[in-house]
Amino acid sequence: MPDLPITGGCLCGAVRYAVDAPFVRAGYCHCTRCQRRTGTAAACSAQVEPGSFRFVAGEQHVREWAPPQGWPKAFCTLCGGALYARDPEDPSRLAVRMGTVDGDPGIRPGYRQHLASAATWEPVPDDGLTRFDGPPDMT
User: Fold this and answer.
1) In what order do the strands lie in the sheet with 6-9?
2) Of 52, 68, 70, 118, which has the most beta carbons under 10 Å away?
3) In CATH, what is the architecture of 6-120?
4) Could you give the CA distance from residue 77 to residue 63 in angstroms, rounded to a whole number?
């Protein structure tokens, strides 16, 4: 159980947030969009309990890019640091980028999604995590 609230922020520190409940689940996304957004082979995110995310500082510096399909991606306009993605139908549902969390997030990644589009230049590790060719089935 992590210490609550879980805190985090962007690279430059202008945007700060708090999460008032433990994360629900976490995983890696290997889709092409995440590869291009991060410049890496996969992005790691942790889903928050709906309604538990709040800004502590710098909300005015947050902008979103809404892809034609998928969740809008939020970032700091000062440093460009990725912060989270949110459900376009329910803004209380979002997943923070685990690299933005201060200290131990209290959760570990449990799955890998979009393996059908995984980067060819970096093998996906055989780490025992649940794997999905596309989006995960979380039902």
Assistant:
1) 6-9, 16-19, 53-57
2) 118
3) Beta Complex (2.170)
4) 6
Minimal CA–CA distance to 101: which of 84, 85, 77? Answer: 84
Measured CA distances, 60 to 66, 75, 83 (Å): 18, 11, 13
- The string of pLDDT tens digits covering residues 19-56 is 999 999 999 999 998 999 889 999 999 999 999 999 99
Separation in Å, CA 130 to CA 33, 90, 96, 101, 125: 21, 26, 20, 23, 12
pTM: 0.91
Nearest CA among 98, 77, 96, 76 for reference residue 86: 96
For residue 93, which amino acid is it?
A: R
DSSP 92: T
Structure tokens at 19: 């999460």
Asked if 45 and 26 touch (Cβ cutoff 8 Å), the reply is yes
Counting Cβ atoms within 10 Å, is residue 119 exposed (0-12), middle (13-18) or buried (19+)?
A: middle
> 19-41 burial, b for 16+ CB within 10 Å, e for fewer?
beebbeebbbbbbebbbebeeeb
